[in-house]
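**User:** Hello, beginner here. Are you able to go through the protein record under this note? It all follows right here:
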Amino acid sequence: MGILADYFAATPGQALTTVDAGPGDELRPLRPKFLEPFVLVGALWEVMRHGHLGSPRTGLHAGGERVDGNDDEGPYLIRLVSEFVTELAALPDDRIDAVAAGWATAEEWMGEPELEIVAQLVGELRRVAPSGDRRRGGVLLDLRLTGGWVRAHPPAGRRPRRR
C-alpha cells in the first residue's frame, strides 16, 4: 500500500473539480512521494516554529478539514491549516536550509532523507503556499491510498494506472 499526495492551491470551485481525478497540471501541483500532512508535514511546521523537533513533539498537524464529501474510503481532499500555509509562505530563503536540516531528523521519513532533497521539498511546498493565500481556497492535498497502484511518472494531468 502506498500514498499518492498532490499539494496544490485552488479556488473552492477548482477544488471541487479535482475530487474524482485529482488536480491537473494547470494547478501546478507538487507531487512528492509519501508526504502526508498530519505527522510528517506537522513535523515541518514544528521545525519552522521552534527551530527543531522537540521531545516530546508538540503535535502540530498541518492537515485540516476534509472538503471532498467522499466516504471513509477516499480519495481525500484536505485543506491544509491556514496558519501553517501562512507561516510556510512567509519562510525566508535564508531559513530553508536550517528548516530542512531540522525536518530531516523526523523519524517518520522512510529511510534517511538527503538534505538537499529535503531543502528542495521545503522550497516547493513554499511555492504552493502563496498561491493558496491569493486564491482564497487555500492549499489543498489530494490524498489517495493505493493498493495495486503504481506511480511511475504518469503522463501530465493523468492519474496512475492500476496494474
Q: What stands out?
A: Strands lie at 2-9, 63-66, 76-80, 139-146. Helices lie at 12-17, 40-50, 82-89, 96-103, 115-135. Residues 5 and 35 are 6 Å apart (CA to CA). The first strand starts at residue 2 and ends at 9.
